[in-house]
Amino acid sequence: MLRKLFSVLVLSTLSASLMADPIPGIGPVGKVEKAQGGFAFTEGPAADNAGNLYFTDIPNEEIHKLTPEGKHSTFVEKSNHANGLMFDGQGRLIACEMDGRLAAYSPSGKRVILAEGYKGNRFNAPNDLVVDSHGGIYFTDPTFRAPMPLPQGKAAVYYLNAKGEVTRLLDNLPNPNGVILSTDEKTLYVIPTGQAEMMSYPVESQGKIGAGKVFATLDQPKGKKGGGGDGLTIDTKGNLYITSAMGIQVFSKEGEKLGLLVFPEQPSNCTFAGPDRKTLFVTARTSLYKVRLEAQGHTFPGKP
Predict the structure, then answer these.
(1) Structure confidence at residue 4 (pLDDT)
(2) Which whole number is the average pLDDT over 6-23?
(3) How confident is the model at residue 8 (pLDDT cuts 50, 70, 90)?
(4) Which of 115, 118, 171, 203 could cross-link to 156 by cystine, CB 3.0-4.6 Å?
């Protein structure tokens, strides 16, 4: 009886903690719901133009698909530890494979390798990416799940242009993790896991960035310091949604902290999906969650 009462109290406390005051203009406007569960470690949510949601289960080397109607299926059964995902302008699902490559999947699941190394060595473990309007791909290459010694010698951020040429953009951050562009593609945001300061860089031309600056500093759990972010997404107003140990910390495009979105498990990444792109899907450890927001997700059209 006491155990049952304790369970009820825990669930009630958790439910209350997830019902924080909505962020003006952001939300949520509905309850946090578990869309799917029972995974090892979820990551890389990405939506296609039909409203389907794709995400990875890294340890199990799977890519999963969830339809707008809620039907779940396994899209890829051997993903080479795929992590971050994003669709390009050709309708291909681009995957950061932590086994050292960038790959693209056709709608039928046919895989082609886009890039597998820099200056003769394999990548460490590609983690997250964003596709620009030129068909180029910015992606991070930290140390997580990488062989030792590091194939590239250091963690870095790269750009793969539409011709297949790879350029190293920066290598001075402690494990660069999440990456995304501003809505006008004039700013590149890089989210390190090894520091509380989130970075931004002016995009001077295709695949070329200027000097970085601190965009925002993440709030930390009580008694902790120096904790960074993981993945992120962006809405049509340029607000950034950065996953962290505290939940999803939301910042305006000016770097002002707007509020916090909390989930039952620590989030790793997030993206907008659904017919109106107002449903935020969140990968969080063993589960995939969703919540309706007032805000609408930005779409990167890529190059057809």
Answers:
(1) 38
(2) 50
(3) very low
(4) 171
Contact status, residue 55 vs residue 85, Cβ threshold 8 Å: yes
pLDDT digits (tens, 9 = 90+) for 288-301: 999 999 999 999 98
CA distance 271 to 279: 8
In a domain, residue 301? The reply is no
Contacts of 183 (CB under 8 A, 6+ apart): 234, 236, 238, 298
Per-chain mean pLDDT for the chain? 93
**Domain range enclosing 29:** 2-292
Inside any domain, residue 302: no
> What's the whole-model pTM score?
0.93
CATH of the domain at 76: 2.120.10.30
Q: Is residue 298 part of a domain?
A: no
Residue 300 forms part of a structural domain: no
